[in-house]
Write a structure and sequence with these properties.
- This protein folds into two domains: 14-167, Beta Polymerase, domain 2, CATH 3.30.460.10; 173-313, Aminopeptidase, CATH 3.40.630.30.
- It contains nine helices and twelve strands.
- The chain has helices at residues 14-29, 62-71, 106-120, 122-135, 152-156, 158-167, 181-194, 256-270, 285-290, and strands at residues 33-39, 52-59, 75-78, 85-91, 95-102, 173-177, 215-222, 225-234, 239-247, 275-281, 294-295, 307-313.
- The longest helix has 16 residues, at 14-29.
- The model has no long low-confidence stretch (mean pLDDT 95).
Length: 314
C-alpha cells in the first residue's frame, strides 16, 4: 500500500454532506428504507477523520437494495468481514461508504453506541484522535497483513473501539469473519484448546489455510467476548466443508454451537452452496444429527482418529 491514508481536521460541512446523501439514498430505496444514520468519525463534531462519509442504511430486504443503489451511482463491494452486510461506495466531491443492513442486525447498534459515546465523552474523543495521529507515524499502518481486508491503520484502532463498547456494556450477538488482532487470538486459542489439544496434531496458527482463498474463519461473539469459532472450506462452487466448530468452555451447552451452525448454513446458502460436509468427531455426532446431518461419502483427510462423515443438503 502507498501512504495514502489522509486524516484531516473536522469539517463542519460533513453533516450536510450526509443529509444530502441520505435524501438520495432514501429516494433510491423508497419503501425498502427503514432508517438512515451518519456513523464513523465524520459524524462526531470536532473529531479528526479520513474525509469519508460513512452511512448506515437500515432496510427491509438487503438483496433488493443492490440494483436500486447501483442505479444511483453506488458500487456494490460485497459484505467485507461482516456476513449479511451490503457494502457500497461512491466517489463524488466526498467519498461515501454506505453500509446496508437488514433490520435488527447487531452492527447497527454497535456503530451507534460507539458514535454516541464519542459525541458525549470529550476525553474519549481526544484519546481516539491521538490514536489516529500516532498510527499515522507507523509504517505498518500503511500495510495490509497477509489475508487481511484492512490496513494496519484500521486494525490498530480496534483495541480502543473494543474498550469503549465494553465500557458502554454493549452485549449484541455478532457473527463475524475473523479480522482483528484480538479476534484472531481468541479464534486460535479456542481451536487449539478444544480441538487440536485433544489430538496428536500440533496446532499451527500460521497454517496456509488461515489465508488461503476459499477458507473462511468465523466467530460468534456476545459483545466483545468470543463464544464460538468455525472454519469453512469451499470444496467447489456448490459444496463446502465444516473443518472445525468449537465453543469456549464457559459457554458450552447453552445453544451457541447450534446458533453458529444456523448462521453458517444461512450464509452458505447466500453463497449458493448446496451441500455442507464434515468429519464429525464421534462425541459430536448426536449434535449434528439433530441438525439434520446424515452419513455421507467424504473422501478427505481428517486429523481425528474417531470420526464419522456427515453431510446435509442446505
Amino acid at each position: 500500500m502507498s501512504k495514502n491514508i489522509q486524516v484531516v481536521t473536522y469539517n463542519p460541512s460533513w453533516p450536510q454532506v450526509f443529509e444530502t446523501q441520505a435524501t438520495l439514498i432514501k429516494q433510491a430505496l423508497q419503501d425498502n428504507c427503514v432508517e438512515i444514520h451518519h456513523i464513523g468519525s465524520t459524524s462526531v463534531p470536532g473529531l479528526c477523520a479520513k474525509p469519508i462519509i460513512d452511512i448506515i442504511a437500515v432496510v427491509k430486504n438487503g438483496d433488493l437494495s443492490i440494483e436500486t443503489l447501483e442505479k444511483s451511482g453506488f458500487v456494490h463491494k460485497g459484505e467485507w468481514n461482516i456476513p449479511f452486510k451490503f457494502c457500497f461506495s461512491k466517489r463524488e466531491e466526498h467519498r461515501i461508504n454506505l453500509h446496508v443492513f437488514e433490520e435488527n442486525h447487531p452492527e447497527i447498534l454497535l456503530n451507534l453506541v460507539f458514535r454516541d459515546h464519542l459525541r458525549s465523552h470529550p476525553e474519549s474523543l481526544i484519546a481516539y484522535a491521538k490514536i489516529k495521529t500516532d498510527l499515522l507515524l507507523e509504517e505498518s499502518s500503511f500495510e495490509k497483513p497477509e489475508g487481511s481486508l484492512f490496513s494496519g491503520y484500521n486494525l490498530g484502532k480496534d483495541a480502543f473501539i473494543r474498550r469503549i463498547l465494553a465500557q458502554e456494556k454493549y452485549q449484541g450477538y455478532r457473527f463475524l469473519k475473523v479480522t482483528h488482532i484480538q479476534e484472531w487470538q481468541d479464534y486460535h486459542r479456542i481451536r487449539k484448546e478444544l480441538i487440536f489439544d485433544l489430538t496428536e496434531v500440533i496446532y499451527d496458527p500460521n497454517h496456509p489455510t488461515i489465508t488461503l482463498t476459499g477458507h473462511h474463519h468465523f466467530i460468534l461473539c456476545k459483545g466483545m467476548e468470543t463464544i464460538t469459532v468455525a472454519h469453512i472450506d469451499f470444496l467447489n462452487e456448490t459444496e463446502a466443508a465444516l473443518r472445525s466448530l468449537a465453543t469456549d468452555v464457559p459457554f458450552q451447552s447453552q445453544g451457541y454451537g447450534r446458533e453458529m451452525m444456523d448462521l453458517l448454513e444461512k450464509w452458505l446458502k447466500k453463497q449458493n452452496v448446496k451441500i455442507l460436509k464434515m468429519h464429525a468427531n464421534l462425541r459430536a455426532e448426536h449434535f449434528y444429527r439433530k441438525l439434520g446431518y446424515v452419513e455421507t461419502t467424504f473422501d478427505d483427510p481428517c486429523i481425528s482418529q474417531e470420526y464419522i462423515n456427515l453431510g446435509k443438503v442446505l
